[in-house]
Write a structure and sequence with these properties.
It is a single chain. This protein is 54% helix and 0% strand. The protein has 79 residues and is an all-alpha fold. The chain has a domain of 52 residues. The longest helix is centred in the C-terminal third of the chain and has 18 residues.
């Protein structure tokens, strides 16, 4: 991930990584994907986006550890 001089990840890179977590993921409804997209592109805080990416990645790993057998929704985790 590219970084600014301050060491903070570039917002565009964070947005891209978060979008990859949500879009096309069958665990999220179309409405959840739209809400996530809105939040991802409205947020200007790199630290907040980084925390959200870490939490979402951990939650998905925890809820969907082995394969497509689990279809648990993460509603409420989106925004």
């Amino acid at each position: 991930m590219e970084t600014h001089v301050t060491g903070q990840p570039v917002l565009g890179e964070l947005r891209h990584a978060l979008s990859a977590v949500f879009f096309g993921n069958p665990l999220f409804s179309p409405q959840e994907q739209l809400l996530a997209n809105h939040y991802i592109h409205e947020c200007e805080d790199a630290q907040q986006l980084t925390r959200w990416l870490r939490r979402m990645t951990a939650a998905l790993t925890h809820r969907h550890p082995v394969g497509p057998s689990s279809t648990t929704s993460l509603a409420g985790y989106v925004v």
